[in-house]
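Lab manual, section 2.4: Encoding a predicted structure.

Procedure: take the sequence of the chain (63 residues), apply the prediction step described in section 2.3, and record the output as structure tokens. A sample record is shown.
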Amino acid sequence: MFRPLFAAVFVAGVALSAAPLASAAPFKNCTEARSNGYSNIPSSSEYYGSHLDRDGDGIGCES
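Recorded output:
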């Protein structure tokens, strides 16, 4: 009785752990960032890209 249950739980756990995690990427441009509600994006953010930082101060899409 427990063996089929254990097997089902194990298979489900493996399937869930193998699922790829979503990761954020920098916005293509500041228009895209602003349309998604982002501005003043710090360099520590996963949405930051150096192409979004015109003056090179570590803040992208400054408003």
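Check your result against the sample. Confidence is low (pLDDT under 50) at residues 14-21.
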